[in-house]
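Working notes for the structural subgroup meeting. M.R. asked for a predicted model of this chain before we commit to crystallization trials. I am recording the input and output together here so anyone reviewing the notebook later can reproduce the run.

Input as submitted:
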Amino acid sequence: MDQITTQTFLLRSDVSDVVSGSYSVQSFQTQTPNPINFKTSDKTSMTGVFQMNADRSQLILAIPCTASDASFQNLRYKDNSILIRATRLPVPDQIHLTYGEDPQTSIVVSWATRTAAGSYVVYHQDQSNNSIRVHGTSRQYQTGEYQSWFLHRVAIANLLPNTKYTYRCGEEHNWSDRWHFTTAPGPSDEIQVTMFADINLGGSLGGSLGAWKNSTDCLYAMSQENSQFIFHSGDIAYCVGDQVCWDHHFQAMQPVAATQAYMTSMGNHDVFPEDIGYLQRLEMPKSQYSDPDYYYSFDVGAAHFLVYSTEIPFYRENATWVAQIEWMRQDLAKAQANRHVRPFIIALCHRPLL
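Returned structure, recorded in token form:
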């Protein structure tokens, strides 16, 4: 039995737009066809029988009615009922930020919608009403019987360093709430970073949603204390191939990751038995010679952060490991030459070195 409260759908008839509008489902069950109570946009109460499709994005309703019902006079009848198709509105969910190529001047906004939708971000400086609209891309992936939500990505550039912005994502009539972020400070500024790892949301290894909520509440409180960004050092949610677990993770992380860059490195539980969930949902900054799926670097404040994968030797071909080592040599040489500007070099990974 699956109970859901207050979900918003777009209501359309297969044969007419007479009853088109939005409605909120107070509760429904997703097993066999069940009676459903709902209200249309004009507050008309109706009861019908419905079935839901596999990804829970669409309801098919049979609304009992008679030929004397004035509101349905222009509709075709079959057995004194009318079939109405209701599609879930593509409200943005799983919103999270990552740094762009230059954390001082760029940010990437990512989110998911259950159905196809536009990929737009509207943003403005915190003390300004001059909004800028940016268009991005969306995609889906499939593995086994799992079909992902539509995954959206919008890159924002030409921002001012250490500046607070307000944004929302989505499309017309289906915008997210307003969120905010602050771009990275310059090399002369002190920084504070929130770091954590190995949180078991559930997946195929069990885990505890209650414990995960406690962890995210604690993480949110810590990250709000002048933290510039969040770093999750692998074993993101112990999903171990469970793709729905990834959906739950980004839903749980949204209050934190929608306001600060959420940077990661992969852990063993992120790539075994497969790595598609991690690679499809987390896109890190790309710089010269780096492979942002596995290793990358970025600058924030007085520090250069080098992120590398400890999992490559266990599941990738040797050429990828060799390429990572060569990239590390070049990146560290460049960072060393720049230590008069950024004196700190911080290496981040999942497994301990010793």
